[in-house]
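In line with agreed milestones, the collection of sequences with tokenised folds has grown. A representative record is reproduced below.
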Amino acid sequence: MTDDTSLPSRSRAVADALAEAGLPGEIRVLPDSARTAAEAAAALGCEVGAIANSLVFVCDDAPLLVMTSGAHRVDTGYLARVLGTGPITRASAAQVRGATGQAIGGVAPVGHPAPLRTVVDTDLAGHDLLWAAAGHPHTVVPMTYEELLKLTGGTPSAVAPPQE
């Protein structure tokens, strides 16, 4: 367990999961909300594409966490075809909280009540350093693409068709 009591409780759970995974990411508390990729990028001084958005969907009657680049949207029809699943739909706020224990805008890649099936956007691999929410809309954590894959046990995949 982390002893950093200055973090919100949901962020402490994320810090504990990072420590258990042996990852060095230190959670940063931002003075303003980072609920959107644009807000987070502005606060951190990075490209919006380096923000690893944690989006929760419902797929085959189970939650699906998609870690996607803040530079584009998930194409759910495309992703369902790539994964070979049934339809993928956006989870409601209540479903997000139930699956992750975290509110929309602060959903982290980990720190959930139970592990979630996870897809990690391959576009994130193009950035040396990524920033993900850390359990609260005011907290973020840095990591590499490889660390994100290790941390989540996620499946690397494109989440939208290639841009022409």
User: Anything to note?
Assistant: The CA atoms of residues 65 and 116 lie 6 Å apart. The longest strand covers residues 51-59. The chain has a mean pLDDT of 91.
